[in-house]
Write a structure and sequence with these properties.
Elements (H helix, E strand, L loop, with lengths): L1 H11 L13 H9 L5 H6 L10 H6 L13 H19 L9 E3 L5 E3 L16 H5 L28 H16 L5 H8 L8 H8 L7 H22 L6 H13 L13 H17 L14 H8 L17 H21 L9 H17 L1 H9 L5 H9 L8 H13 L3 H16 L1 H6 L3 H9 L8 H18 L9
C-alpha cells in the first residue's frame, strides 16, 4: 500500500527529480526525508533515477518480477539482459542479405524488373527473427538528381507525391481524353498545373492543334500528317547538297551536336539525323525566316515527350535503335508538326533582324523597371543591357537556363496558356530574373553580373521550383497584361 502511494506521488508531483525511493524501513525513510542533502554526493545517494530498472513499469516491460517482489536492482540480471540483447542483435546482423533486384530494357524500350525482386516477399525458414524486422521501416532515401537533366516528374526535394490528389488528377485526365470529343478548354485548365507523364504525349498533340478533338478523326489525321511529312523528306531532303541550300544545311549540321551536349540521347547518330531532317524541312518550308540558331533546341522537348510513350524510365540514356522503325518514324513526324505549330506563333522571333525578340526584350526591361526598380537601377549602374542576357532567354525560350525536365514542365503550362510561348513567356522571364534578385544586387561589376546571368544555378531545379516561378509569372501577368500603361513610369 505504501509503495502504491509513492508511485502515485512520483507520477503526480513534477517537482521530484527522480523516482520514488525503494522500499526501506520507516525509520530510515523518515531520517532521509528530514535530513537535507549537504552535498551533491549525499543528494545522489538519497535519490533514485526515474529510469531505474526497479520501477514496476520497467519490470513488467522486461518480464521481471511481479510488483510484490522487493524492487532491489540485481546487477547479474542487468548484465545477463544486456548480453542477451547484444547476442540477438549480432544474430540479426549476421543474416544474409537479399539479392538485389536488377532491371533490363525490353526491345520496346520498357524497363522490366528481374524475378529476383519477387524473393523479397517470400519468408525464409528462419522466420523467427523476421517478424520483428518486418515492423522496422528504413527511412526513404532522397532521390538523387544527376547533373545531366532527368526527364522524370519529380521535385528536386524528393518529396513524395500527394497520392490522393494525384489519383484525382489522373482520373480527370483519363476521362477528358477518353471522351468522344475532348473538351479542350477543360483540358487546358487541367494542364496548367502540370500534365501527368502518361498523358503528356497525347495532351501536347491536342493542345498544339496537331490532333483534332474528335476521337474518330485522330487516326486518320495522324496517318495523313505523318505521310505528308515523309513526302516532304522525299521531295526536299536530297536538295540539302545543292548550292542554294548548302549554307542552311551546313549551319544545321554544326548546331545539332551542340544540342544538349550533356545528354547521351542527343549524341546518338540516329537522333542527330532525325533532328537534321526536321530542321532542314522546316527551313525549306519557311523561307521568310529559314533556319536560325536556337530553333534546334525547340525540337528536343517534343522528341523526348513522344519518345517517353515507349520508355518506362528516363530516356536520357535510351538507345533509340531498339525501337521498331515505324515507331521512330512516327516520333520524328509528330515532333516536326508540333514544333511547326509552336514556331507559327513566334516566327517573328526568327525573321530578318529578329524583331520579335527585340520587342520582347524591350518589354522585359520596362516591366522589370516597374516591379523591381533596385534591380533595374543596378543594371544601369554597371551598364548591363538587357539584350546582353535576355536575347538568349527569348531566342531559346529559357532552354539554356533550365534543365530539360523543367522545360518540359514549363511547356505544359505554355501549351495550356493562351499565347503561352509568345506572350506568357515574357512574364516567366521577368519572374525568373527577380528570382535571382539577391545574387544580382551582390554582384558589383559588369563582368560578375554577366557571368551570373549567363550561368544561373538551376541544375537541381524540379517541379516545385518551376511551380513557384509559374505562380509569380501569373501574378505579374494579372497585374500588367491588361494594363500596358503600368509598364511606364
Amino acid at each position: 500500500m505504501a509503495t502504491d502511494k509513492k508511485i502515485q506521488f512520483w507520477k503526480r508531483n513534477a517537482k521530484v527529480p527522480g523516482s520514488f525511493l525503494k522500499e526501506a524501513p520507516k525509520t530510515n525513510a523518515l531520517s532521509i526525508k528530514s535530513k537535507k542533502a549537504s552535498s551533491f554526493l549525499e543528494f545522489a545517494r538519497s535519490t533514485s533515477d526515474a529510469w531505474d530498472i526497479g520501477d514496476d513499469e520497467e519490470e513488467e516491460f522486461l518480464g521481471g518480477p511481479p510488483p510484490n517482489t522487493p524492487p532491489n536492482l540485481n546487477s547479474k540480471v542487468a548484465v545477463a539482459t544486456a548480453a542477451q540483447v547484444i547476442h540477438n542483435y549480432s544474430k540479426v546482423r549476421e543474416k544474409p542479405e537479399w539479392p538485389q533486384s536488377t532491371e533490363r530494357v525490353q526491345a520496346n524500350g520498357s524497363v522490366v524488373k528481374s524475378s529476383s525482386a519477387a524473393q523479397l516477399s517470400q519468408p525464409s525458414d528462419g522466420s523467427s527473427f523476421r517478424k520483428p524486422l518486418h515492423k522496422q521501416q528504413s527511412l526513404p532515401l532522397r532521390p538523387v538528381i544527376p547533373l545531366i537533366a532527368r526527364i522524370s516528374d519529380q521535385n528536386a526535394s524528393g518529396a513524395p507525391p500527394m497520392a490522393v490528389r494525384e489519383k484525382t488528377r489522373l482520373e480527370k485526365f483519363r476521362q477528358l481524353l477518353a471522351s468522344q470529343n475532348t473538351d479542350l478548354e477543360e483540358l487546358r485548365r487541367c494542364s496548367w498545373s502540370g500534365i501527368p507523364r502518361e498523358f503528356r504525349p497525347i495532351t501536347w498533340r491536342l493542345l498544339s492543334g496537331y490532333l483534332p478533338a474528335n476521337m474518330e478523326r485522330r487516326e486518320i489525321v495522324l496517318k495523313r500528317k505523318r505521310d505528308e511529312y515523309f513526302g516532304f523528306i522525299e521531295q526536299y531532303y536530297d536538295s540539302r547538297n545543292e548550292e542554294h541550300h548548302q549554307d542552311t544545311y551546313r549551319q544545321i549540321h554544326i548546331d545539332i551536336p551542340r544540342t544538349n551536349p550533356l545528354i547521351p540521347l542527343f549524341q546518338q547518330a540516329p537522333v542527330q539525323e532525325v533532328f537534321e531532317r526536321i530542321l532542314f524541312i522546316w527551313a525549306i518550308r519557311h523561307p521568310a525566316s529559314g533556319y536560325v540558331q536556337g530553333i534546334n533546341d525547340l525540337v528536343t522537348p517534343f522528341f523526348v515527350v513522344f519518345l517517353s510513350e515507349f520508355v518506362e524510365e528516363d530516356v536520357e540514356n535510351f538507345d533509340v535503335t531498339v525501337l521498331p522503325q515505324h515507331v521512330q518514324r512516327n516520333i520524328e513526324a509528330d515532333s516536326f508538326w508540333c514544333m511547326s505549330k509552336l514556331l507559327d506563333g513566334i516566327q517573328d522571333n526568327y525573321t530578318f533582324a529578329q524583331p520579335g525578340i527585340q520587342t520582347k526584350v524591350k518589354a522585359l526591361e520596362e516591366l522589370v523597371s516597374r516591379i523591381d526598380e533596385h534591380v533595374h537601377n543596378h543594371f544601369q549602374k554597371y551598364e548591363v543591357e538587357y539584350l546582353q542576357f535576355a536575347f538568349r532567354w527569348m531566342n531559346n525560350l529559357l532552354m539554356r537556363e533550365l534543365p530539360l525536365r523543367c522545360t518540359i514542365r514549363l511547356w505544359d503550362t505554355y501549351q495550356a496558356e493562351a499565347e503561352g510561348f509568345s506572350h506568357f513567356h515574357l512574364y516567366i522571364c521577368a519572374a525568373f530574373l527577380i528570382k535571382w534578385r539577391k545574387e544580382i544586387l551582390e554582384a558589383v561589376d559588369f563582368q560578375g553580373l554577366l557571368l551570373l546571368l549567363q550561368n544561373l544555378p538551376t541544375i537541381h531545379w524540379g517541379n516545385e521550383e518551376v511551380g513557384l516561378l509559374l505562380a509569380e509569372a501569373y501574378r505579374l501577368k494579372y497585374m500588367f497584361a491588361d494594363a500596358p500603361s503600368h509598364y511606364r513610369k
